Amino acid sequence: MKEDPRFRASKSSLVFLVLIINFTHSNIVVQGDSLDSDNSKMLCDADLSSFLPLPYSNLPNMVCKPVWNSYVLRYSQTKNHKITIVLSTIYTSGWVGMGFSKNGMMLNSSCMVGWVTAEGLARIRQYHVKGLTPSQVKPDQGELPLTSIPPVVVLSSATIYLAFQLKYNTTLKTQPILLAFGTQYPHHLHLTHHDDKTTINFDFSSGNADTSAGSSASFFKDKRTHGVLGLLGWGLFLPFGAIFARYLKHKDRIWYYLHVVVQFIGFLLGVAAVVVGVSLDNKLHDYIPTHKGIGIFVLVITILQVLAFFTRPSKDNKYRKYWNWYHNWLGRICLLFGAVNIVLGIHIAGSGEAWKIGYGFLVGSVLVICIVLEALLRLKRSNEKDFPPAISMNSL
């Protein structure tokens, strides 16, 4: 029995999807920073008493750990749940920050940020990250339980030290920590955009930092995988599948096979993005209803489109035109909300300029292609109206 070409196309797209996912995973690598014991000892041997005031200069049972690049975390935790923290790193200009987050995300975190102005004035403030734009990072706000001991920032031998004390109700154990810096000075206490950042899971009860493997690495890998799969599925394959269907009709059955294969690849990539997104949501427990809601809505539409593919009436069926309206408009709605959700995802994840520029270039390219092809299509239809077929019926 001859195999239905629709099923043959879907099998081909499934094989291609496996190759895409394998390629994606093989190129998404989270690298951790490691320092040998000699470097660790050298970084932790600095005499804090020569430039830091009490209690920061004399921490009982102090633990010192290099955590990221030149960042060194010193801390001491008492039995009454007071924890004194001294964060240090190489400094030239701009600001340095350490944030506390419930889920490892920058959004809704509370941070201590310090800097030394060009005039030599030391500044340290608590910030509440209410959004991902500089104007939404609010100075002198946050949820950190600071004690009455004033926070301190000191610059000594090209190293900046941020020192502050917190008081919790219970012993502080494993905690997602955000580390970030910006090379531009804050303007009227408003932070400039960070140049780099990382998240680590730090165990304050044992002094162990998880920077290269485990949950922190898994979080960043899942976040990037979710973004890559979603962008490929709803941002690349599905739009081009729609382009093939609209502008390649003159290529007889070629347009149909291209449309089916590319749309199936896009659908499967989108489903994979949702699966990774659900896993990510289970780890974060974050409140991002708009992104999740649109994602579910787009997923439902894509499933309906797949079902429509298997129930397509024949050309001479009286319901074919209604099926065409349904399929075309549902596809356009899917592409629109898919694009909106990609932009939301990039914004929520706090992705860098590369993601924004890359997706902006992709959207711009698709729009230019559509405009050019639509103009050519309308020109062709106009010419067909102006020059009807040479053979005509005799009116008599």
From TrEMBL:
Chief localisation class: membrane
Annotated membrane-spanning segments are 228-248, 255-280, 292-310, 330-351, 357-377
Domain of life, per UniProt, equals: Eukaryota
One GO cellular component term of this record is:
membrane
Q: Where is the signal peptide?
A: 1-26
Q: Which residues form a coiled coil?
A: none
| UniProt keyword Membrane present | yes
**Locations listed in the record:** Membrane
Q: Which residues form the Cytochrome b561 domain?
A: 185-382
Alphabetical list of InterPro entries matching this protein: Cyt_b561/ferric_Rdtase_TM, DOH_DOMON, DOMON_domain
What residues does the DOMON domain cover? 69-182
What are the entry keywords?
Answer: Electron transport, Membrane, Signal, Transmembrane, Transmembrane helix, Transport
Whether Translocase counts among this entry's keywords is no
Q: What is this protein called?
A: Cytochrome b561 and DOMON domain-containing protein
Which species is this UniProt entry from? Penstemon smallii
